[in-house]
Amino acid sequence: MAVFRGIFLGLVVVTLVFSATLSAAHLDGFNFGSGGSQTHDLFPQFYQSSCPQVNDIVISVLQRAIEKNPRVAAFLIRLHFHDCFAQGCDASVLLDNSTTRISEKGAKPNVNSLRGFEVIDEMKAKLEEACPLTVSCADIVALAARGSTVLSGGPDWVLPLGRRDSKTASFESSNRDIPAPLPDLSALITTFERQGLDETDLVALSGGHTIGFAKCSFVRQTRKSVCPRRGGDNTAAPLDFVSPTRFDNSYFKLILGGHGLLPSDQVLLTGNRRQAAELVKTYAANESLFFQQFAKSMVKMGNISPLTGFEGQVRKNCRRVN
Ligand code: HEM
Ligand SMILES: *[C@@H]1O[C@H](CO)[C@@H](O)[C@H](O)[C@H]1NC(C)=O
Ligand SMILES: *[C@@H]1O[C@H](CO)[C@@H](O)[C@H](O)[C@H]1NC(C)=O
User: Fold this and answer.
1) Would you place residue 11 in the very low, low, confident or very high pLDDT band (cuts 50, 70, 90)?
2) Of the ligands numbered here, which is closest to the C-alpha atom of 264?
3) What residue numbers does the annotated binding site cover?
4) Which of 120, 133, 174, 284 reaches 20 to 30 Å from 22, CA-CA?
């Protein structure tokens, strides 16, 4: 035992020294060479010495916000998705209109629909007090999405950090790269593939619709008991009417029962793709398998084209560039 422990400790030390050397070399060589932009990997301990309380601060603001309005958890999970799909996970979605910029907030998938910005502002304000100019808005969004999942009863995961904030927004990318809720499975798959996400990621991440609401204009057909036959376009109907604030696998059970929520949800089962249909059944039967894959896919989504190193900036106010 003692021998094994000795070898194990030795390995740990060697690994630590090795990775410290690597990251030092990394920092020195970063972006000054002629080779153009070298990308840095995100890593979970990014704020370990610069802001160790980062997650605690995010969670305490989140807890209070959810107590006041249980819908906040869904807002923030969706916010991370819409940030990452438009121009990468760079907090571009948080930037307001300015004289030189058209905000993503007015893009079709977001306008009158994407919410939770004030909660991010509050987290940022608290973090600026505790660790000035240290924690990026893009990381706050990623942490808020994980926290929202956990506080709703869903899975937890180890979250790589170190994203930096963009100085630009892309109204066009939001309109082009965030999928529409249409019953076209191959279009959904293509939209995800463009982000480096596969069919398994599509099905698992669609499970994010286990919490939250959609406007009747999207779900009139499938939510006849809640949505009036005409009008009431902005009335909110629960996506998962069995447990609208609980992160569980009832989303997949509802699809199996033909109570798919958005047309883009039901089509995962009916869209003539064997793999997607099988996954819907698998996740409906086994919640822990869904949780495992959701966690993996969230990490993958959170890694879409981050800015790292000296790219971008750490914004002081998430709504504008410094
Ligand atoms: C697969 C493609 C997807 C489409 C077409 C889609 C579309 C939509 C639409 C149309 C709404 C309703 C918005 C409204 O009525 O204002 C919605 C809500 C929501 N989406 Fe998605 N979504 C997709 C994937 C995802 C992913 C990957 C996540 C996160 C992992 C996610 C999380 C949410 C959440 C939590 C809500 C509820 C928001 C609220 O309660 O306000 N969605 N989605
Ligand atoms: C931003 O400005 C554009 C162009 O003036 C406008 O169409 C859009 O509605 C504005 N967006 C928001 C979120 O106010
Ligand atoms: C559900 O999936 C887990 C893996 O997450 C596996 O260990 C377990 O055996 C599965 N349960 C059933 C009933 O298939």
Assistant:
1) very low
2) 1
3) 83, 88, 90, 92, 104, 179, 209-210, 240, 248
4) 133
Decide if pLDDT at 321 tops 50: yes
Q: CA 197 to CA 273: how far, in whole Å?
A: 16
pTM, to two decimals: 0.89
Which residue is closest in CA terms to ligand 2's atom 5?
Answer: 102
Please give the distance, rounded to the nearest whole angstrom, from the Cα atom of residue 290 to the centre of ligand 2.
38
**One-character DSSP codes across 60-115:** HHHHHHHHH-TTHHHHHHHHHHHHHHTTSSSSGGGPPPBTTB--GGGSTTTTTT--
**CA gyration radius, the chain:** 21
The position carrying tokens 């981050």 is 306
Higher-scoring residue by pLDDT: 110, 240? 110
Closest protein CA for atom 12 of ligand 3: 286
Active-site annotation, residues: 82
Local confidence band at 284 (pLDDT 50, 70, 90 cut-offs): very high
**Which residues make up the CATH 1.10.520.10 domain(s) of the chain?**
54-177
Fold (CATH) for 185-301: Peroxidase; domain 2 (1.10.420)
Fold of 54-177: Peroxidase; domain 1 (1.10.520)
Rounded-to-integer distance, Cα 249 and Cα 290, Å: 7
Q: pLDDT tens for residues 105-161?
A: 999 999 999 999 999 999 999 999 999 999 999 999 999 999 999 999 999 999 999
Residue of 97, 108, 114, 319 to mutate, ligand 2, most atoms within 8 A of C-beta: 97
